[in-house]
Write a structure and sequence with these properties.
heterodimer; A: about 220 residues; mainly alpha; 7 helices; B: about 325 residues; about 70% helix
Chain lengths: ~220, ~325
Amino acid sequence: MQHIPLWAQLINLLAAVLLLLAFAMLAQRRVLTLINLFAAQGFALASSTAIVAFATHQPHLYWSVGLTLVLKVMLLPWLLHRLILKLDVRWDVEGLINIPTTMLLGIVLVVFAFNLALPISQLANTVTRATLGIAMASVMLAFLMMITRRKAIPQVIGFLAMENGLFFAATSATYGMPMVVELGIALDVLVAMLILGVFFFQIREQFDSLDLQHLEKLKE
Amino acid sequence: MSATGFLSQLLQLAIALLLAPVLVGWVNQCRAWLSNRSAPPLLQPYRTIRKLFTKDAVVAENASWLFRMTPYIVFAAMALAAAIVPSLATDLPFARAADAIALVGLFALARVFAALAAMDIGTAFGSMGARREMFVGFLAEPALLMVLFTASLISGSTSLPTIVDTLAHREFAIYPSLAFAGVAFTMVSLAENARIPIDNPATHLELTMIHEAMLLEYSARHLALLEWASALKLFNYSCIGLALFLPFGIAEGSADWLAILGATPVLIVKLAVGGFALAMIETLSAKLRIFRAPEFLGTAFLLAVLAMLVNLMLGS
């Protein structure tokens, strides 16, 4: 422990915060809080990327910090806030399985991800490679959130959180992806969000609800 | 055992006994301020305890020795715990008597006796309170143990003084696992000290009571001892939390008088801030239904398990 520099310790801490927020999102019942938690996760991600950029002198990472801040801390939460205001959907989130069971599944996933990441992270030569397991765990937790939630908006937040996890994995394993890839993913997420926003309106118009189970009844 | 060690042990115990009611008074004061009420004086718990000690005790006809003995047993357990938890100095003679696991056992002993005494009289409220207390206890204890195990993994020992020595007096390092453990510990201590998300300490409605329902049959000196014991329990939990997560300022060893004298104001400041945070949590959250308690404490347990996992993953 003692030989790890302070900035790497800070990144470890932020990784832990990221995982904590992933669990908080998994356990959260209210949509508004869910969006705020997503923004907080984006902020933790941006801070850890900034620390990596500062410590390893990689100026291109600052761009992705700015991108994360603008996109995931401000723009996407603002879009989501506006969306739930317009759709007037402030209901509690209903899960397919109850929250304690979801959390237990989450723990199992974390153990799985940590085991999976252990051999991979030994191949990486970055100081922050230990956080790869945490990044994979938060990807899986976000995936679990997408699976267990019934309504559309939490599923979209799960999708966005999954992207957060992927991004963190890239930063911790290889000190960030090439700029082109990052820009592409960021724009993809933004476009996906906009298209999904349109979908929400369509879905609600069709079924008077955002419950995606109605989609199973679709017929020609 | 050296004479100075013995003296510093006595000093720590005396400070714990004296500060515990003040801490409760301080939390009550903060709660009153935060909800825009005029606050009771800081020393109100002392006055209550003094008033209760001067009254005549009324004991139910069918009470057995268990009912009479319980206040003394609970108070003794909490006082012993206060002597073991390193709040001022680490190298105290009593601290070697019990490690973190035995400390949890000590709390469990007090809980079991309180629950037995509540059922002893045979009133409906007493046994209901006892059942609920055990229900909360069996959920909170594993989480508390997991939190302590996480700290033990870091320092390689289950003895609290060694943990404090490792965390406070070595080279500074950030332990992400302790962030998880800290959240879990906060949740557990809220539940264990009958605080708001689980139980309302200021309630007068018997049906919603947990801890208070067990004390309904007690009066006078018995009640005073139990009130003092619950204040001590809050003090002990605060000190365990401070020892694990903010161990700075605790004196190393017991021979150095200056260090211990310096540690006292630090402890008071930390407790004041902690008490205010507790009042803040209580004001901002609503009491959960009793059937939501498993979810709340299950979350605490999972966070504590996560802390251990993160510790194993990051090696820190």
